[in-house]
Amino acid sequence: MTDVLAELRALRAGDLPTHGGRTLAYVYDSALPGLDELAASAHALASSANGLDPTAFPSLLRLENDVVRTAARLLGGSAGAVGTVTSGGTESCLLAVVAARDARPDVAAPSMVLPETAHAAFHKAAHYFGVRAVPVPVDPVTFRADPGAMAAAIDSSTVLVVAGAPSYAHGVVDPVPPIAAAALERGVRCHVDACIGGWVLPHAAGIEPFDLSVPGVTSISVDLHKYAYCPKGTSVLLHANADLRRSQYFASADWPGYTMLNSTTQSTRSGGPLAAAWAVLRHVGDDGYRELALRVLESARVLRAGIEDIDGLRVLGTPEATLLAVTADRDDFDVFTVADEMRARKWYVQPQFAFGPSPANLHLTVTAANAGNERELLDDLRASVAAAVEAGPVEVAPEVLAHVASLDPATLTPVDFAGLLAAAGMGGSGVLPERMAVVNTLLAAASPALRERLLVEFLGALYS
Questions:
Q1: How many C-beta atoms surround the C-beta of residue 376 within 10 A?
Q2: CATH code assigned at 158
Q3: pLDDT number for residue 420
């Protein structure tokens, strides 16, 4: 047993750090001592219980109702609000879409209206469930959804309208009240994706209403494994009332076994993540979460102000939560090289490619662990920009970029893709180069469809 755990620890040593605030994507660190141990102990107590049947495991039913009640209280739910604990934000968004679709069997070719900044989970839902996505351009300066354009996009096929609180890419909160009002006027559901901000924004000053208290908002999602600082694998999808939730459920008695009855896309669900989330929520409490939220909001404010003082950088939009998108405002360096330089200094910042009015940028997810350590991050970011300026912009032969930009993913063979992956430094064993600026420059030159296909091929190579 000791040898197995030692091997696992050795494998984990090669991962990005999950604590300390140096991984500014994917992970959320409260910096509260003992919280991980509490969550792990609670997870172990319930990991063998199965959420498939709440009558067989009534403890899980109690835990889920407690967690949903806590989320509803925070996010403007009335006495009739109901919800479901899911495996994460993507599943919460998927279920919101399928519930909206199945509540309207009269619509033969359903669609959903969403800002172009909406999370890719909604495009995944469109792909899975046959609901046509209707992306609407956002304000090119603020990156907030345009309520008038959103309202104009609603038609007789629309079953759902989506808004973000905040959007992931830029950390800005969409104007939910007018968007929800337009949906309500047309008799259409409105979902607010608060997966990132739901546990923080209620404590922020000056935020426009965005939750279930807003007329017309019918559902909202919030992830517990983000700013509730619970272990991975828990999110909550809230509906304003039980009638709205009913079409989310799936039941099938059309086979000789037990009648399958599911509240989520999963059937068997370990009770471990739910128990861990319940324990963390109980331990931290409302006052503790308010303190954590204020701490991370202040840290994001300090970092935003510090970044604006770094020559060559600017923050996109007007972020109101804990996410920052940082771009270059000069052409003598590129942000992909800055990302490499930050990685060399033991920081991970997430590159984001240009899309519409949004230029290539670096995404920073600020957590409570960054509070008090902002100066070190800013100093290293300033040094990384200086190093990127000294190195100059990434140089790739123009004919190579033109060739990549012209490729049609539908006509390329697996051999062609293998050659492209190898040229980008992404082939062979699946081990990426230490510096990714050239790879990211080539990917940036590719169309979104080609980039998707290249990365799918790369993912397949990793799992071979």
A1: 14
A2: 3.40.640.10
A3: 73
Element (H, E) at 268: none
Q: What pLDDT was estimated at residue 168?
A: 98
Q: State percent of the chain over pLDDT 70.
A: 98
Where is the domain boundary, 256, 281, 306?
A: 281
CA 217 to each of CA 74, 82, 94, 203, 220: distance values in angstroms, whole numbers, following the listed order? 15, 14, 17, 20, 8
Give the residue from 200, 195, 245 showing the smallest Cα distance to 91: 195
Phi, psi dihedrals of residue 3, rounded to the nearest 5°: -65, -40
Cα R_g (the chain), whole angstroms = 23
Name the band, by pLDDT with cuts 50, 70 and 90, for residue 293: very high
Say what angle helices 58-74 and 272-308 make with each other, to 10 degrees.
30
Residues 213 and 354 in one domain: no
The average pLDDT across 323-342 equals 97
* 24 inside domain: no
Q: Are 75 and 198 in contact (CB under 8 A)?
A: yes
Please give the single-letter amino acid code of residue 230: C
Q: Is the backbone peptide bond immediately before 166 cis, with ω within 30 degrees of 0?
A: yes
Map residue 350 onto helix, strand or coil: strand
H or E element at residue 149: helix 147-153
Q: What's the structural domain count of the chain? A: 3
d(CA 423, CA 442): 9
Give me the torsion for CA of 382, 386, 389, 390, rounded to 10°.
-160
Decide which of 391, 426, 446 is a domain's last residue.
391
173 shares its domain with 306: no
The H or E element that residue 85 is part of is: strand 82-86
Same domain, 98 and 173: yes
Residue type at 243 in one-letter notation: D
- Structural domain of 311: 286-391
CA pair distance 338, 419, nearest whole angstrom: 27
- How do strand 132-136 and strand 111-115 relate by DSSP bridges? parallel
pTM for the predicted model, two decimal places: 0.95
Residues 179 and 251 in one domain: yes
Out of 52-66, 102-116, 443-457, least confident range? 443-457
Cβ atoms of 209 and 220 within 8 Å: the answer is: no
